[in-house]
């Protein structure tokens, strides 16, 4: 009787539980306490900006020269400025100004930049060369210097500051979108769509653009803090938000004259700027990790 080789059958492997993308995203995003801290700061800023009229103890624009440069007290927690306006109320309304300017400027910059980058990356050739060389010309000038120049030429003010910051950020989004488009249009799903007769517009909007969004979202989140800082810088220089508008940058500048006798006038808005910029940077860093496909299955 011939020997029968009995093959050992390996034990059935346990099925790896499937984790949904949303759960994986939240797990990675909230895995670090510093990101949670940043989210709390951003949430508080948004709530303060939305409900500023209900939260602010005083009218931030009402002058009271008889109560100018009052020390911090139970009536005025952070004191008053040189015109007698409540510092805390102006910081609360300044949060509204900072969020409005940074968000609208980034939407403007991202919209124009993504459109130019998508067209340049997909069309290639002479169109790519013309658009990208134009963006290189803008990027040859430091972003803040470009924003200062545009704001100074336009005369400052809320709308002009938004336009100045938006224009200065367009080249960054255009170059990122162009690079993402050049990589995405070589994928199999794009070639398959082209082979079945899909139009160029459909391929760009339906197949390429959605797959280029994650890095752009990360960049927008991280640049929200930088844009708030840029707006504060323009207002500090006197070419940003015009008086009597509440802006953290102009508050730092106004309080600088009274730094010895009333340091809270400069320190309080300065700390607000620091915390918000730090929060957006930390959340942007967490979003980058959560949206990175290389980390799937690892975190």
Overall 3D shape:
elongated
Oligomer: single chain
- Annotation field: number of helices: 11
Report low-confidence residues grouped into runs of 5 or more.
none
Briefly note the structural class of the backbone.
mainly alpha
Topology order in helix (H) and strand (E) letters? HHHHHHHHHHH
Name of the CATH first level: Mainly Alpha
Helix content class: 55-70%
For the secondary structure, the number of strands is 0
**CATH architecture identity:** Orthogonal Bundle
Folded structure, characterized:
The chain is mainly α. The chain has a single domain (32-53, 80-293), classed as MetI-like (MetI-like fold, Orthogonal Bundle). Helices cover 68% and strands 0% of the residues. It has helices spanning 21-29, 33-50, 52-55, 87-123, 125-139, 143-154, 158-184, 188-195, 200-236, 248-256, 264-291. The N and C termini lie far apart (56 Å). The mean pLDDT is 87.
Describe this structure in a few short sentences.
The chain is mainly α.
How would the blueprint of this fold be written?
Blueprint: H1 21-29, H2 33-50, H3 52-55, H4 87-123, H5 125-139, H6 143-154, H7 158-184, H8 188-195, H9 200-236, H10 248-256, H11 264-291
Helix pairs in contact: 1-11, 2-4, 2-11, 4-5, 4-7, 4-9, 5-7, 6-7, 7-9, 8-9, 9-10, 9-11, 10-11
